Amino acid sequence: MATDSADKNSATAAAILPLVGGAGNISSVAHCMTRLRLGLRDRSLVQDEALKALPAVMGVVDDDTYQIVLGPGTVARVTPEFEALVAAAAASAPGTAARTAPGSSPAAAEELAAHGAAIKAARKAKNSTPFKLFLRRIANIFVPLIPALIGCGIIAGLGGLLTNLGMLPTVVPALTATASGFMSLIAVFVGYNTAKEFGGTPILGGAVAAIIVFPGVANIEAFGQKLSPGQGGVLGALAAAVLAVYVEKWCRGGTSQAKRWGRVPQSLDVLVTPTLTVLVSGLVTIFGLMFVAGAVSTAIGDFADWLLANGGAGAGFVLGGLFLPLVMLGLHQALIPIHTTLIEQQGFTVLLPILAMAGAGQVGAAAAVYLRLPHNASIRSTIKSALPAGFLGVGEPLIYGVSLPLGRPFVTACVGGAFGGGFVGLFNMLGDKVGSTAIGPSGWALFPLLNGNRGLGETIAVYAGGLLVGYGVGFLATYWFGFTKPMLEELNVAATAKDPTPPTKEPTPVSP
């Protein structure tokens, strides 16, 4: 069985490689929770439709990297196989061989896919602003940490469950240590990734960030206050590592200011540059950044608690309803440091379960589209293949393949997410905090990571209730308000090879 799985992953990697232009067209390979992320030398060599036709591929996203959606678990197994193929063929010429997709999709599905691709292309063009490029860098720093956050979060949940049940008391401390070790040093990993992302020496970024979690900072007093280990958290580590990169670049002549004032002689670089980088950045971190970042981190935690304690259903309604548009615009990446800060402070983030309701609204909307278009086998086939991933929190195939190109169902999906978020937010206001011990998963995949201030059973019940509300409202809103009469007349038809019946006028997406 394991051999069959390995063969399947290897076959998937082998099928993908020629469709992205071959090994010579690959400049970088990475993966996140659900996507294989590729740096490409020539985008024109990619065969999008043939890629989408592969059984293992749920969709593609053309962003700063070319992203192939494979789903959780699968992507972590396909990526090493893909990397091995690229390495083995590194000396060969860029491949341009095409692979023909097995058959052609009916016209209606092709219309939606083309429309979805156009929306993604337009979004990509708008996402090249300095602010959004900065958010992508933030995502590149934190996304590699997600697997460890998930693993440690599940172990922490298991330890809490055993404690509540009074079982295996001698094992619980070991589970606690296993789950908490990474979180106690997460600032170091953030510093390492930050320096790497901003073009510095990663280990120097980690060294400066390590100051924040060093127990000895408790002996340091400044401005009438004593520092505490961990003060400033991931935000302090992020700022400290960025500062370290600029100091390092200054020493090595990487900035115009360095060229003006001089740089460290090359013969002394190996001794002087690391020393100055750690010394200058370390002192600024101790006597400045830890205080500032600590205040910001505390304010984030206090504001999240205040918002849900006082805003309750209203705050959850707004957050759940706006998350899909934030994802579409790429602005959701700004929330990653906030989630991480809340997990670091409180052990869980109360925002993620609410935002996950957007995916529930999307699933409900897709189910309604399926029922409203009984004669359009192509769109129904797309929905059937994408719904299982949608239940597990992978929403890209449904968003870009169905709801967003259609327009109105995207808005009604947001309505479903809003009501689901309002449900979870209401219980937060009533004192039942529902949080996640890690970021990344959503939908049903979030159940093992749930935590809160009440019993685990009650926390799971509230989250499950929110999902049911999101599914139900998303379905009803889409079923009754997701289509105009002309849209139904154009889309609710059978497409055949001889008489394809695509929409006479491409549906225009409604701006959220």
Automatic annotation (TrEMBL):
Q: Which UniProt key words apply to this protein? A: Cell membrane, Kinase, Membrane, Phosphotransferase system, Sugar transport, Transferase, Transmembrane, Transmembrane helix, Transport
Residues forming the PTS EIIB type-1 domain are 10-92
Q: Gene3D superfamilies of this UniProt entry?
A: Glucose permease domain IIB
**What compartments host this protein?**
Cell membrane
Major location category of this protein: membrane
Coiled-coil-forming residues are none
Q: Does the keyword Zinc apply?
A: no
* UniProt membrane topology term: Multi-pass membrane protein
Record-annotated PTS EIIC type-1 domain positions: 136-499
Organism of derivation = Streptomyces maoxianensis
The membrane-spanning stretches of this chain are 141-162, 174-192, 199-218, 230-247, 268-293, 313-336, 348-371, 410-430, 460-481
Q: What is this protein called?
A: PTS transporter subunit EIIC
Q: Where is the active site?
A: 32 (phosphocysteine intermediate)
Q: Which domain of life is it from?
A: Bacteria
